[in-house]
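Posting for a labmate who doesn't have an account.
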Amino acid sequence: MGGRPVTAMNIICFPPKKLPMEVLNRILQGGLDKMHEADVTLVGGHSVEDDEPKYGLSVTGVIHPDQVLRNRGGRPGDKLILTKALGTGIVSTALKGGEADPALVDRAVRAMTTLNRKAAELMTQMPEIHACTDVTGFGLLGHACEMIEGSDVGLKIESSAVPWFDGVRELVESGYVPGGLYRNKDFRMPLIDVKPSCPEWLLEILFDPQTSGGLLFALPAGDAETLVKRMREAGIGDAAVVGEVVAEPRGRILVV
């Protein structure tokens, strides 16, 4: 983490016999709009016919070797900041089932189409950032496990402090849960201890696979509230301190 994107290439799979070309045009235009927002130059791309639409970008960027932020390196006493609310995977599953509230879908889409650029810029302005990861397909707890697995530190996650979209709890309790959430949970629960203060529906949200999720990073405790305040003033309204790095238990996560 910590790099600056410079160029990108489109990679797209599309079923022209199933979907109108206008859909392809809108996908490509949306990608181009975000590239412009990120000051990235589109240099080409590749497309193939496929049964399901898929779109992504192959990005090239630059970073100074001394400014690389790795997902490990948190120190006991550090606070953890999360910059986006959770629940995009659950909302997407409910949308496929025709049960997602339009207002909730709109909020999830706004979150997914918001770049992490401003959050990253504010983060790197702080004197010290000890570890950083993005929160994507492995969910918050899955990526948090990558930060401490096999290390000499652990994490404590304050479940009540974690931001999530209003309405997601009801979807979880109604059974609109993506398969990836269960795979994340099955894979990572051996590293996680959960206190009764974290209900089961909230634990599900903490494992929800995110699309274009936020940043999760560790920094000295004295800087955490200052940075959260700056982020919220900059429009990153869901930014929150969600836990801390602890000396014990090593290589494990305690969810309270």
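Reply:
Got it, the structure tokens are right above this. The mean pLDDT is 96.
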